[in-house]
Design a protein that fits this description.
This protein is of the alpha/beta class and about 280 residues long. It has a single domain, classed as Spore Coat Polysaccharide Biosynthesis Protein SpsA, Chain A (Alpha-Beta Complex). Helix content is about 45%, strand content about 20%. The protein contains eleven helices and nine strands. Strands 1, 2, 3, 4, 5, 6, 7, 8 and 9 form a nine-stranded mixed beta sheet that branches. Helix 8 runs parallel beside helix 10 and helix 10 runs antiparallel to helix 11. The longest helix is centred in the C-terminal third of the chain and has 30 residues.
Length: about 280
């Protein structure tokens, strides 16, 4: 059972990492290695697999036999459903979300646990997150710098304008998720933003001054294939959670439309170049 926040030290805080996965054999090895390299002493890893057929399940079996994780493999209703299953299986004090193509930076979980121990009333914590490509190298550094700038100046109103919180670098007290619920399965691409906004309405996160994770953006990933719909959903998330902040919600609507239009222009330009 999770312990009371006020009684926790950094070392005693158990962090439960939930990893939804489906046919992720090409990347999940890096994910597992990044968890194994952590120096925090209290880690629980729960993997929820959607019925992979590419060797992922066999790898999970070996890892589970070695005591490094627990897993279930069965059909699900998508990423949000899988994450919610993992939360139900987890037993730790804090819940983390690390997809099967993302990675933790060395020392990440120790930095997070220290931040929670130093702010025992904080319900969630957020750190910095890099963007990595299919080869694992950092990419889109300008986007990361933009998000980090906004994170340093965090406020709820600012957060309503656009989502600059990265899920692999976000951690939530289990007791809070038990109270407010985890991901809303209505949203295919932005259930994380909806959840973080629901938390943000309750109080600000403790900001972890460290690079916590690498978020993979590569062709074929959910972040790319659902790019346009993601921002449609972002606008809806802001409307539903932005009571009393009409200006910020309006900025979100305008920015979401602008980002989608810009994305369409970039895609059209690429198609024209290939056609030429």
């Amino acid at each position: 059972m999770p312990s009371a926040p006020g009684s926790q030290t950094a070392a005693s805080l158990t962090i439960s990492i939930v990893t939804p996965t489906f046919n992720a054999i090409e990347t999940i090895g890096e994910t597992l290695a990044s968890i194994a390299a952590q120096d925090h002493p209290a880690i629980e890893h729960v993997v929820v697999d959607g019925g992979s057929t590419d060797g992922t399940v066999e790898l999970l079996e070996r890892e589970a036999a070695a005591g490094r994780l627990r897993y279930v493999s069965e059909p699900d209703d998508g990423l949000s459903d899988a994450f919610n299953k993992g939360v139900a299986m987890a037993t730790g004090d804090v819940i983390a979300w690390l997809n099967a193509d993302d990675v933790y930076e060395p020392g990440a979980l120790s930095a997070v646990s220290a931040a929670f121990a130093g702010a025992p009333e904080a319900e969630w914590a957020v750190g910095r997150c890099k963007i990595i490509g299919g080869d694992g190298r950092e990419s889109r550094k300008a986007v990361t710098a933009y998000k980090n700038f906004l994170l340093r100046h965090y406020s709820f109103g600012l957060y309503l304008t656009n989502n600059f919180v990265s899920s692999p670098a976000t951690f939530v007290r289990r007791a809070v998720l038990d109270e407010i619920g985890a991901l809303d399965v209505r949203f295919k691409y932005s259930a994380d933003y909806d959840l973080w906004l629901r938390l943000a309405r309750r109080g600000d996160p403790v900001l972890v001054d460290a690079d916590i994770a690498g978020f993979r953006m590569a062709e074929g990933s959910l972040s790319i294939t659902g790019f346009e719909q993601q921002f449609v959903e972002h606008a809806q998330n802001a409307r539903e959670n932005g009571q009393g902040h009409r200006a910020a919600v309006a900025v979100n609507q305008a920015m979401s439309k602008l980002i989608v239009l810009t994305y369409r222009s970039i895609m059209l330009s690429r198609r024209l170049r290939r056609g030429g």
